[in-house]
């Protein structure tokens, strides 16, 4: 499945011309994700946070606090310190995967861009002080995230790589951060508020879905290379899913609160979305079992899945 407007297989050799690196043919999935990132417009220059201030003034205080908390969750994930990608870059370099290195470097730039743009929006609109409060993200999951990244830096073997990609990307980004971003977009739509925040979150979602496609692709090829890793992946997700789902359910506010849900969000529905998306990514990974990892390099299914999820969700991140 090829993204509308993106180069097709016949034109992918153009990547070498863009980068000056003849080793890149444009035929692998990491290269195609890189091309999508190069072609993706970034709207921050056209976003003026002051335009959203009047919109936000019409929200009840509890809803403003919730919107700040959701934005903070996005900042803690996709907009976190780009240096956290360094262990992944180290492994890609050791494996000789140049396209993966370039893509991860591009994503590090994207994360810095997210942090700058979303942080400025929070500051200008006055939600920054609320967003500076201690995070609501699940501490168990984030502790495991930092432990996994530290372990990968000191022991960069491929089994550790699989565990770190699963923790940092499939769970923290794919469940907590991506669903929080979707919740922000849905809240903006439901309340008819903050159109510039909606545009910004949509652009962040587009970058994030490319990163999630890479994460699914990476787990898939690592499992294909050694089927024993499949059991490790299932066990890790069984450990990480419950606290992550509980954190998702809590994102929409305290359960059982009287009246209409804040910003029209249902915490249980957010958790179901996070679980369903993770299960579908796991299903794509499972289809790589027993296959030649080299064949998976040119298989677009991880990207096609993210495109389907984006289309089903509607926003943010459609198209990928």
Structural notes for this entry:
With 320 residues, the chain is an all-alpha fold. The protein has one domain: Ribonucleotide Reductase, subunit A. The protein is globular and about 55 Å long. The N terminus and C terminus are likely disordered.
Mean pLDDT: 82
What count of structural domains?
Answer: 1
Order of helices and strands: HHHHHHHHHHHHHH
CATH architecture: Orthogonal Bundle
What CATH first level would be assigned? Mainly Alpha
How many helices does DSSP assign?
14
Proportion in helices: over 70%
Rg value: 19 Å
**Tally of strands:** 0
Q: End-to-end distance, in Å? A: 12 Å
State the fourth-level CATH superfamily. Ribonucleotide Reductase, subunit A
Biggest sheet character: none
CATH topology: Ribonucleotide Reductase, subunit A
Strand content: under 5%
Inertia-based shape? globular
Characteristic key phrases:
single chain, 320 residues, mainly alpha, Ribonucleotide Reductase, subunit A, 70% helix, 0% strand, disordered N terminus, disordered C terminus
């Amino acid at each position: 499945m090829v993204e509308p407007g993106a180069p097709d297989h016949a034109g992918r050799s153009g990547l070498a011309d863009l980068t000056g690196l003849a080793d890149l043919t444009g035929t692998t999935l990491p290269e195609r994700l890189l091309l999508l990132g190069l072609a993706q417009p970034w709207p921050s220059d056209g976003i003026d946070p002051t335009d959203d201030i009047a919109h936000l003034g019409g929200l009840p205080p509890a809803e403003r606090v919730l919107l700040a908390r959701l934005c903070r969750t996005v900042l803690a994930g996709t907009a976190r310190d780009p240096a956290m990608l360094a262990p992944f870059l180290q492994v890609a370099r050791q494996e000789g995967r140049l396209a993966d290195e370039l893509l991860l470097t591009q994503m590090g730039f994207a994360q810095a861009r997210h942090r700058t743009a979303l942080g400025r929006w929070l500051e200008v609109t006055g939600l920054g002080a609320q967003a500076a409060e201690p995070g609501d993200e699940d501490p168990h999951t984030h502790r495991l995230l930092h432990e996994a990244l530290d372990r990968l830096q000191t022991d960069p073997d491929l089994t550790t790589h699989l565990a770190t990609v699963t923790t940092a990307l499939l769970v923290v980004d794919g469940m907590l951060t991506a669903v929080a971003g979707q919740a922000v977009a849905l809240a903006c739509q439901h309340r008819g508020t903050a159109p510039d925040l909606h545009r910004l979150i949509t652009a962040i979602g587009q970058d994030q879905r490319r990163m999630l496609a890479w994460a699914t692709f990476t787990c898939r090829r690592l499992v294909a290379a050694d089927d024993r890793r499949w059991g490790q992946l299932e066990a890790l997700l069984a450990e990480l899913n419950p606290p992550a789902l509980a954190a998702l359910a809590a994102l929409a506010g305290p359960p059982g609160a009287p009246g209409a849900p804040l910003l029209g969000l249902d915490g249980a529905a957010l958790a179901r979305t996070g679980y369903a998306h993770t299960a579908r990514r796991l299903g794509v990974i499972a289809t790589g079992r027993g296959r030649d990892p080299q064949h998976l390099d040119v298989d677009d299914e991880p990207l096609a899945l993210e495109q389907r999820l984006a289309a089903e969700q509607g926003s943010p991140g459609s198209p990928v």
